[in-house]
Design a protein that fits this description.
Helices cover 26% and strands 18% of the residues. By secondary structure, the protein is an alpha/beta fold. Among the domains are: 50 residues; 103 residues, Vaccinia Virus protein VP39 (Rossmann fold, 3-Layer(aba) Sandwich), CATH 3.40.50. Strands 3-2-1-4-5-7-6 form a seven-stranded mixed sheet, with helices on both faces. Helix 4 runs parallel beside helix 5. 33% of the residues are buried.
């Protein structure tokens, strides 16, 4: 392709109008959801379901524990209970006291009441961990999203997943309550740098030395040592946890 015909990535083009935006069993369950089949309202963005399937399907049928901030009408708690299976434990958290009535809506569902921007509340919730899955679908302000991540991430299992939903609110002034330039998206961008800080502290050649011949320890933050990936999607950020090892580059 010639340079003159190469697509200009910053060119403004229309988005496709596809009402069907995901696939898989969970999405089909969402599409068939109605007040006739369930008395509980369920509100999710259509493009989220492919992301859910990618990151959460491995937990189906296991004795996993899910934590979700944002109960609303209890619909998502029912959905997760049905999707993950009866062995899973689903814990919902909401600031509204009336959502307590959804405690026990399914045998494996419980509801806790508390303000996710309150550190004491987060400490109390973290005590119920470790969580295999944590989803922040709560109040969506910068302060709530950042505080919830900082307060709960350490209680996510070392092979678990943390998801912050509706991060498009990082671009809406109504939700920017943490100070100029402080949003969940910007917070996650800084955490990308934190994942890679070890490479700024040592020369390149040090990573080619076999483990048995290395002197001293490669130190990094607890976050960086436990985070395998940070994945940005439209309106969602997913953190996958996995214990990391010292980087090793080798010619073979």
């Amino acid at each position: 392709m010639s340079a003159s015909k190469r697509p200009y990535l910053a060119e403004r083009v229309p988005l496709a109008r596809n009402e069907r935006q995901s696939s898989g069993e969970l999405y089909e369950r969402f599409l068939s959801w109605s007040r006739e089949t369930s008395p509980r309202k369920l509100n999710k963005w259509h493009h989220y379901f492919d992301i859910y399937e990618r990151h959460l399907s491995r937990f189906r049928g296991t004795e996993c524990q899910m934590l979700e901030f944002g109960v609303l009408d209890g619909g998502s708690l029912v959905m997760w209970s049905e999707y993950l299976g009866p062995k899973a434990r689903i814990i919902g958290v909401d600031i509204e006291p009336n959502t307590q009535r959804y405690n026990g809506i399914r045998p494996n569902v419980s509801v806790l009441i508390g303000d996710q921007s309150d550190q004491a509340v987060l400490d109390r919730i973290a005590a119920h961990g470790p969580f295999d899955i944590a989803i922040d679908d709560g109040g969506h302000t910068a302060r709530q999203q950042i505080n919830t991540f900082n307060g709960i991430y350490g209680s996510v299992d070392n092979q678990g997943v943390y998801t912050c939903e509706d991060t498009h609110t990082s671009y809406w002034k109504k939700f920017q309550d943490a100070g100029p330039g402080i949003t969940m998206v910007e917070h996650a961008k800084r955490l990308i740098d934190e994942m890679h800080v070890i490479y700024t502290e040592r020369p390149k050649k040090s990573f080619a030395v076999p483990m048995s011949e290395r002197e001293g320890e490669m130190l990094t933050t607890r976050f960086a040592a436990s985070t395998f990936s940070i994945q940005f999607y439209d309106s969602m950020i997913v953190f996958e946890k996995r214990p990391r090892s010292e980087p090793w580059s080798q010619f073979r």
